[in-house]
Amino acid sequence: MAIITFHPQELRQEELCVQKETIKAFFTKGPGAVCDLTSLYFQESTMTRCSHQQSPYQLLFGEPHIFEDLLGLKIRISPDAFFQINTAGAEMLYQTVRELSGVNSNTILLDICCGTGNDAGVIGLSLAQHSSQVLGIELVEQAVEDARWTAAFNGITNCEFHTGRAEKILPQLLKSKENGQLIVAVLNPARAGLRKDDGFPATELVGLCCPSNPAKKLLGKPFVLRQAVPVDLFPHTPHCELVLLFTR
């Protein structure tokens, strides 16, 4: 899949259509055919990055989605969803999250920001078989739709995915949950991190564990860092993903 972001400048619609056909021909019949694309999208934008809601993706040719196999799951990916390009590294990352989280049949797993940095809900979906229930929350609607499709296709029935802000949705979701169930939250926000008013105690958390207490909602005692595990998703670079386990 490739997405061409095109600044329309002062071009008329007819001229834009010519540009679209030129791009399409380049990738289907011209030198770009070597890319062997399965999907080509076009997006008009005056910004370097914008969402489907801000400026809809236009499919020039191919399938509307791409698919990937990961941890035994068939994953559907939309153009507005995030997905790790290092599949083998991503599997190691999610297995590390599973080991640190300690989820079991009495665990409610909160998959927060499940499409922004979390590959269309894959963390929650991969842990569903080990958990009592998975509740995913994400702002990007396409990523939520992908997660729901992936759950249905793979026969996963104990997952719910909701579109919206975590600080608004989580309190309502947790009201109906039984006391005594362990709540483990996997938090994988966008690169900018969380805002101070998001109701979370830190700005860069991937693994986050806490006991259930609906009365406290998202507030309460501070979390304590228990363990940190680096996972190398970017070979030959100084960068790595860091899985952090916090408890309280």
Topology summary:
Elements: E1 2-6, H1 13-28, E2 39-44, E3 58-62, E4 66-70, E5 73-77, H2 87-101, E6 107-112, H3 122-127, E7 133-138, H4 141-153, E8 159-163, H5 166-175, E9 182-187, E10 207-211, E11 224-231, E12 241-247
Parallel strand pairs: 1-2, 6-7, 6-9, 7-8
Antiparallel strand pairs: 2-3, 4-5, 9-10, 11-12
Q: How would you state the average pLDDT, rounded?
A: 81
Query: Helix content range of the residues, please?
Result: 10-25%
Q: What structural class do the secondary elements suggest?
A: alpha/beta
Give me the side-by-side strand order of the main sheet. 8-7-6-9-10
Which residues sit in consecutive blocks of at least 5 with pLDDT less than 50?
A: 197-219
> Which of globular, elongated, flat, extended, rod-shaped describes the shape?
elongated
Q: Radius of gyration over alpha carbons? A: 20 Å
Q: Tell me the series of helices and strands, N- to C-terminal.
A: EHEEEEHEHEHEHEEEE
Strand content: 25-35%
Distance between the termini: 42 Å
Largest sheet: 5 strands, mixed
**Quantity of strands, as a count:** 12
| Tally of individual helices | 5
